[in-house]
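Encode chain A's predicted structure.
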Amino acid sequence: AGVLPSPSPSAVAFPGPCPSGGAARLAAEATCMASSTAPADARAQEAGLGKASGPSRAARLNWRGGLPLLIEGEPSAFDRPPLPVFTFASRQAHLAQAVGAAVAELSRLALVPAPLRTVWLSCQGVPLRWELPVGALFDTLCSQQALPFRIQLNFSAPDGAHLVPFPNPDQLKKAFFHWFKQGMFLRFRSREPFTKLGPAEDEQMRDSVAAGSIDGYWPLLERMSVLPPRAIPVRILYLGYFIEAPGGLERQTVCRQTSVPVEEGTQSVSALLSSELPGLAEIQPAPQVLCQGLAVPLDIPIVQLFEPLAHPDLFLYLCIYSGAPLAGVPVSVEHPDPPDQGTTEPGVPFGAEPSSGVDH
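Encoded structure for chain A:
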């Protein structure tokens, strides 16, 4: 279920800083919404995330975005390195959803005994956090031209390494809804709307996100949108360091989670980044700020960017790409516990209320 068939080229959009095709139309839609002088409620309806019924054109184009993935096994774990697994994944899918079938296929061939394995994913030596969306990870770690997204499957972990082992299906299922409930709580200050879904709808939501199917997801979102929005959940991703790594500095994807009150939604992306990452403006050359593979105009209001480009977990992901760990910005000193120790969201115990303004 985590591996998608490769669609025909005419049906696929590859959003990037220099958009073309479907991505160009998405960029034009988002820019038009950002510059609109219509009331915020009208723009929200046009985006399909307010009182209007059905997703907007911009949201549909966003959900069409996807990435080719190349999953390779750690050479030392095999008698003879197997052929890599090539697949295509929706940008909306969480990494564990997108590569689950490939991980299972390569794991069957590994020589490392199952009880001794620590299965984890990496890209260019950086551990990949399986609870984050595929598109957000790619935008944070790779140039937009560096396709396919090359991922290595590892079966042993260095001593003291900061990483979260790949989940089993039950852990992934619990984690998926934990992430969604975090976004819902920050958005509506309540998880009560989520209780309106039954087991069949839960399954439909997971499958729709994995497959990038907005038509399967949107009716469920509308059913849960019974409370007025209170805030805009935001996650800022960048490549940084764990400063307490046993071997010294260790590269990691840092996730800074915050939320912007609806009444402050006219705050620009630039103002938010200056508040959350004070040292970012001093970095030269200036890093790129990406959202769903598109270069973000720094003067665009957060609320208008959220409407067409929010992830299905109700977070807006702002990805800082510089090609190297950022210096002079906050770094993560925490590390997520493995899911079997009761944590599915880095730094937030399972069942706890999500916090804001915290590096994960």
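The longest helix spans residues 169-188.
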